[in-house]
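Hi D.,

Good news: the full-assembly prediction came through. Inputs first.
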Amino acid sequence: MNVVCNNFIGGDLIPAKSAQFTPVYNPSRGEVIAEAPESDAKSVDQAVRAAREAFPAWADTPVVERARVMFRFAHLLEQNFDELARLITREHGKTPEEAKGDVRRGIEMVELACHAPTILMGQTLDQVARGIDGRVERHPLGVCVGITPFNFPAMVPLWMFPIAIACGNTFILKPSPKVPLTPMRLAELLAEAGLPKGVFNVVHGGAETVDALLKHPDVAAISFVGSTKVAKYIYEVGTAHGKRVQAAGGAKNYMLVLPDADMDATTNQIIGAAFGCSGQRCMAGSVAVAVGKAGDPLIESLDAAAKKMRVGPTDNGGNVDMGPVIDGAARDRIKSYIDVGLNEGAKLATDGRGVMLTELSGGFFVGPTIFDNVSPEMKIASDEIFGPVLSVMRVDDLSEAIARANQSPYGNGAVIFTRDGGAARTFARYVNCGMIGVNVGVPAPMAIFPFTGWNQSFFGDLHIQGHEGFHFYTHNKVILSRWNDPGKRVLGW
Ligand code: NAD
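Then the structure:
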């Protein structure tokens, strides 16, 4: 019997009334280990009611006390660090090191939430008019919702609820039904940290559950991370229903390689960016653009490095460089993109379809794959494949390389490898996206900075993380006070 995940509502584990379930796999073995139910509108309403009822008392709790819960939560996350990483490996398939990275980046968000008392300080200006003082305060919004993707089971939920809660909101998380176990463990730890009942809730499900949340009149704000198609839908429907929305979408990230780049270091960075987490990252480097003479040495060294990668199951503590992809559908989609690339006339330099595994396991595997001679009109150059497939383009000069990157409809990350500071500056200034790396393969900003996707990679105004995250979860109140003193008791005047 598989474990069916319960919802977590008002501090209690409550079964969702559901006729539909999504299987949760151990992707290293291809075995079903749990099931996530689809929560109907009634279950969603129950969660929203619990969050709405908890809101007034939580919003009135002094911010230092709210931050203290986050300090305790951070401490519990550290204490349970290895167990959380193992859970991520089990339900997602990340290597142990990648899973630890997922938890570490998440903890950094909780550490940022601990700064709420300082970050939420308002502004004041006395005597804005005669006898009148002005001040700006930051107030929570109410019930906030987070809808998260499968690829970072801990980090992406932690991008959202620690800040929202530290700001005085209550929260409902709707995690990906493919990885519901890690978020449930986070809920347990947050309760253990002393968060009052109803402040944090979890409902499981997919599109039906999301629709009920998007349209619920008592939901004030929606944070979403996932594919562009769904991000756009969430933004349009959420804003049409009067909610504040931040919706981060998919990506296709370009990496430019100039002929003067340090080829060994660049190869390491590109291999990590393209094949880390089996290519399932919104900041994965998926197109390398080789400028001038960089083409041949780059392909040669990438191919050699990719062929050395050990691919295999990640759940047995074995020493592998790359694990499985999330499920059989993802594996089949990625493989079909390799066929598309071949049909489009790209040259398959490294073929990951017949990957040699470290052991036979029944899991969902695609090996590192590299295409050479990719041209901009090909689908493999523009579609987000979300797997370990790297496309290499060849161009004559820097401006052509920047133009190629700027053809992408997305706008998450772009990277340049060079020793030429002027070229790096021109690239950083004119490339049309929000997160830039100079000799850094995955320029994902840490918690203190905003995660600044542009174009089709983000819908909304205020990004996730950093001070923008705090602004998203609060609205300003400006208070003008007139206190006349008829006695004019001003000493010495
Ligand atoms: P997804 O869009 O399929 O799912 C994301 C969430 O939306 C899940 O909770 C899912 O249950 C829900 N959902 C799916 N279909 C829906 C629908 N039709 N209506 C309403 N809700 C729906 O994404 P995924 O496959 O879980 O994650 C991979 C995607 O996430 C990639 O495109 C990746 O680039 C993106 N991503 C983006 C960022 C970023 O910061 N921009 C970060 C991580 C992942």
